Amino acid sequence: MPTYRDDALVLRTHKLGEADRIITLLTSRHGKVRAVARGVRRTSSKFGGRLEPFSHVDIQFAQGRALDVVAQVESLHAYGEPLLADYEAYTCGQVMLETADRLVSEEGQPSPSQYRLLVGAVRVLGEGTTDGPRPAAMVLDSYLLRALATAGWAPSLSDCARCGIEGPHAFFNPSAGGMVCVDCRPPGSARPNPGTVDYLQALLTGRWELTRGVAAAQQREGSGLVQAFVQWHLERGLRSMTMVERSYAEAHHSQLRQQPQG
């Protein structure tokens, strides 16, 4: 049976029969792959714990008729372990995995840019950076903007997304493609704070030094714009996004409770 090897990040798993699982992975050179992991749910399995979501692995597949089969797997990074200890980071990571699964829709189609973006974002969530940790929501928003841009849906954050007239402009509309001028704005367009738009531009271009000191209100407003943009272009909502929204709400209510009463 022919085999092939690749680096991959586990996106999701499904039970199959009494002891097997179907593993969905995003690989470096073979795009999205769905493969059967035989006996992986047994306690005696040699690599059961290496095939959980967020696992970064070196994996060998045996080509099958309907689905390939996991033949061998070695752990490169177990990003799931630190994420499980941080609810906000874990929920943001779940949105990343679901987004990558949706954006790379065709199995076997190489998507190296999406793979690198996802692995890099999950690494930052789980391990931080050389200059310290970054807020999970900020990492998520940056990933979403850049992943959609790589897929061909880059938001316009300066010039008008409809007529192209040079910005800056005051209005944002997901269906129009981003910022729009007063003449092109559709009904219901948002009017974000100019600083919020600059913040999103920094996230899109990876200029992290410009995100330091951004007010929490602008971060929340930016997250709302990003979520609206992503859900419009993916055509249906991300199921995991509801967990992130609940996490935002709980954090906001906690901040209000901690404020001194006048």
TrEMBL record:
Q: Does the keyword Protein biosynthesis apply?
A: no
Under the heading InterPro entries, the entry gives: ARFGAP/RecO (IPR037278), DNA_rep/recomb_RecO_N (IPR022572), NA-bd_OB-fold (IPR012340), RecO (IPR003717), RecO_C (IPR042242)
Pfam families, A to Z: RecO_C, RecO_N
PANTHER family (alphabetical): DNA REPAIR PROTEIN RECO
All copies of the DNA replication/recombination mediator RecO N-terminal domain together span 1-79
The family this protein is said to belong to: Belongs to the RecO family.
Described function: Involved in DNA repair and RecF pathway recombination.
SUPFAM superfamilies under this entry?
A: ArfGap/RecO-like zinc finger (SSF57863), Nucleic acid-binding proteins (SSF50249)
Record flagged with keyword DNA repair: yes
Highest taxon in the source lineage: Bacteria
Q: State the protein's name.
A: DNA repair protein RecO
